[in-house]
Amino acid sequence: xxxxxxxxxxxxxxxxxxxxxxxLADHLIRLGHDVSVLAPADDDTPLPPYVVSAGRAVPVPYNxxxxxxxxxxxxxxxxxxxxxxxxxxxIHIHEPASPSLGLLTCWAAQGPIVATFHxxxxxxxxxxxxxxILQAALEKISARIAVSEYARRTLVEHLGGDAVVIPNxxxxxxxxxxxxxxxxxxxxxxxxxxxxxPRKGLPxxxxxxxxxxAERPQTRLLVxxxxxxxxxxxxxPEEMRSRVEFxxxxxxxxxxxxxxxxxxxxxxxxxxxxxxxxxxxxxxAGAPVLASDLDAFAQVLDQGAAGELFANEDADALAAAAVRxxxxxxxxxxxxERGSAHVRRFDWSTVGxxxxxxxxxVTDGTAAVAADERTGLRARFGxxxx
Length: 386
Description:
Blueprint: E1 2-6, H1 16-30, E2 34-39, E3 51-53, E4 58-62, E5 65-69, H2 73-86, E6 90-94, H3 101-108, E7 113-117, H4 125-129, H5 131-138, E8 143-146, H6 149-159, E9 164-165, H7 172-176, E10 188-192, H8 202-215, E11 220-224, H9 229-233, E12 244-248, H10 252-261, E13 264-267, H11 277-285, E14 289-292, H12 295-300, E15 308-310, H13 315-326, H14 329-342, H15 348-362, H16 371-381
Parallel strand pairs: 1-2, 1-6, 2-3, 6-7, 7-8, 8-9, 10-11, 10-13, 11-12, 13-14, 14-15
Antiparallel strand pairs: 4-5
Helix pairs in contact: 2-3, 8-13, 10-11, 11-14
């Protein structure tokens, strides 16, 4: 199958959506499919052979963050050229409602279109205001996927229609096989995320750290991600700043080793999350997870059965839970075992098969599917009728 995938956000600045698209493309290629990904990127950026640049992105405030998007006449021309050259059996657009390549592709594409909605933002006035502009494009979509129940709810409330929930995928074995790094072991708390994006929650963790260190002074906080390191620790007493180690941006291999090494992985995110891919990666690596009780995080952690939850933005609750976990090896081992079992449902072997089922149902390839099975798939995935 010839599959075209549209990434709305810049390939130069990795994030959860880009990682999902990259891993999906890799999975499909390993299965023998012909895949091309269209993404914003600087023309001189080294790209995987299956990624086509749609030109440089510009930063735009979006869903509580700053997204690097691509829109305009040059982008539209590149979209049309990519569609013409690709002759795809199916187009898979991610975040078609964002002001980026997905919307341009919706307008220009002919044939089956599958869309994945990642955003969870129940208070999105912009999405409501833009509905009349989006409607004509969204009506061309043959099938809709949401990465979580909360992304599905945002879609239903603001754009209408429905979607099947297929979560983000993870190569579980890649993380499970990683070898710990000794220098990252021993009374360590881990955090991965953009340091200077408040909704990722590092300021909450920094407020909790003095109380953690008061109970367990040997604890270290390891932080991986880009941002202003000096600003991140300025709220800490001077004598405690040495207990925080910044690792900067780390490779996928080191991320897996990081998650295999830490005693507790903390996700203190404060909002705007529709899934929580880092939680799945941490569980895959066997890290006990402590996360804020966002609805999306609670769902990923099986309502607290596969990881512990604390009250969102409550630094005292975070500190108390972290101290308790650091001092209880038996509880940490229990969380490792539960997380490792729970996470298998997010492996690409399952997630990829579900996405392919959607592709097959909206393309001419459904001739290979019996009529009654096709009807069942359409009911399951909430697809448009022929």
